Amino acid sequence: MLNQKIKDNWKWILIPIILIAELLIDDYVMPHVYKFVFHLFAFNPVQNFYTYLNIYKIVSILVICLLNYWIIKQKIFFKPSETKVGWLVFLVVCFTIVLACFTHKHFWIALDVGTIAALPEELMFRGIILAFVLKLMTRKSTDQWRVITSLVISAFIFGGFHYINLTSQSFGFTSFQVVNAAALGMLLGAVYIKSGTIIVPMVLHFIYDFLVTLIKGMSATNYTNVQTDQWWGLSMYVLIYSIVAVSIINHKPSDNKLLSKINKF
């Protein structure tokens, strides 16, 4: 039993290992590969920024999947446990929202940004990190406090990872983004726990980034100061997101589909 406890405790170190490995490969190793390949094909990433961004994100998805296979080996659940009318209605509503925005001037950019933001981030932070933390936390017991703690830990990791944006943003704005991402991570994690399929948080994340980009467009850098009233507004969002997230997983805990799935692997 002691050996098993030590073994389980050591598994926690796999989380920073996969995050650091992904960061190093994406931001330090691959840029050298891109530079060589782009030079070979006379491709200018500055003039073709969105093409470059899509290449970067596709490679990032491949890197995440390979690192998961080599390091954590966490199964990512796509197939729904059962067909629920509520989730189907949710997907139809999301699809309707996208169609309703078809004539907007930022539609195609928003569609692209929503997709390339949602896929890699949900694979990493909900599909791998949240599920792995849940597995470690609920191995002996599925008490609700363990589930909520797992949700908070993964949300904090998701939010904190956004500090990599400091290369193109001010500390104040990035911190604002970090807090907002952590709160959103609570909500996305909760729907993954409840639904048991990564598709639901992926779609929700897509809609969030899609609508934000639709409204604001996309800027490469942001060094604007965050005003006090914006922080107060964010505090309200954090409170609302957190209450909704906890309510989702506390409502009929036996229906938290992800828990039954991860305990089988």
Notes on the protein architecture:
With 265 residues, this protein is mostly helical. It has two domains: 1-73; 79-262, no CATH class. The chain is 74% helix and 0% strand. It has helices spanning 2-10, 14-40, 49-72, 85-100, 107-137, 144-161, 171-195, 199-216, 228-250, 257-262. The two termini are 20 Å apart.
Topology:
Blueprint: H1 2-10, H2 14-40, H3 49-72, H4 85-100, H5 107-137, H6 144-161, H7 171-195, H8 199-216, H9 228-250, H10 257-262
What labels would you give this structure?
2 domains; 10 helices; 265 residues
Shape: globular
Oligomer: single chain
Helix count?
10
Number of strands: 0
| Rounded mean pLDDT score | 91
Pfam families: Rce1-like
InterPro entries: Rce1/LyrA-like_dom
Transmembrane segments: 12-29, 49-72, 84-102, 108-133, 145-164, 170-191, 198-219, 231-249
Domain CAAX prenyl protease 2/Lysostaphin resistance protein A-like: 107-211
Short description:
The chain has 265 residues and is mostly helical. Helices cover 74% and strands 0% of the residues.
